[in-house]
Amino acid sequence: MFLTDLSGFSAFYSAISSSMPGRDRIFHINKTNLLVNHFHFSSFFAPGGKMQFNKLPISTVIALALSTTQVFAAPPSASSAPKAATESQTDTISYAVGASVGRNFKKENVEINSKEFIAGFKDAISGDKLKISEEEFKSILTNFQRDMRNKMVANQREEGVKNKKLEEEFLAKNSKNEGVVSLPSGLQYKIIKAGNGPKVQDSDIAEVNYRGTLLDGTQFDATLPGKSANLKIGQVIAGWKEGIKLMPTGSKWQFFIPAKLAYGEKGVGSDIGPNEMLIFDIELVSIKK
């Protein structure tokens, strides 16, 4: 969940940060920033907006390519989790890391010989001479890196085209539904409960209850029951900012947010894909100056 459970993201951040000593932190982990303009991958991007894979350690590239499906995923339940082979913390961590890599490789259909993978890992970690030359080593990883990048780009492009079409079809149909208001920006909303209080300004903090879903109804984020969230209006995604400023305090509206007013062509994490529109039910509880 984007605003309530950051444990997976924190672990991912730690792994990436540790692989790049001396680099500034690339993620700003707090609840509000996860609603703002994607993640802060600025350290990885060239001025043209393309990720500079060739300047990253291969371990980081693999982590970025494969762990996006795990960053926000819930941990397995206690009943389904494999038993640790030993009570030793080091052994348990080692097993978990290995299982995570294996699971991600399988999910991403990465073709790999597990026997040779383990052999290469053992040789490297023990400091033994590798079976291949340093030149071959670099060439192989460069090619692997390129193939992974191309696969990611192709998959994202295909998914983005599909999501864009679904968005256009939905918004066109939804605009004809009773009570739905369409704004010039493309944002649509429907009043669920009217309020008569003041409206928020850019500098305000809004106390809200909300629930976010995808077009198929999948919930990707929500406030906990009885626990509202305090969000700075100037820092939320564009669709939120435009919509919530129209709401009188005490009201509850439903917003239909096009991808261009949310997370755009890149999406975010594994929950929100490229060009994926979002639906939010938002209740404006109070305003804090």
Features:
alpha+beta; seven-stranded antiparallel β-sheet; disordered N terminus; single chain; Helix Hairpins; 2 domains; 289 residues; Chitinase A, domain 3
Please explain how this structure is put together.
The longest helix is centred in the middle third of the chain and has 41 residues. With 289 residues, the protein is of the alpha+beta class. A hairpin with a 5-residue loop joins strand 3 and strand 4. Strands 1, 2, 3, 4, 5, 6 and 7 form a 7-stranded antiparallel sheet that branches. The radius of gyration is 22 Å and the shape is elongated. The chain starts with 6 loop residues before the first helix and ends with a strand. The protein is built from 6 helices and 7 strands. The protein has 2 domains: 150 residues, Helix Hairpins; 111 residues, Chitinase A, domain 3. Helix content is 35%, strand content 15%.
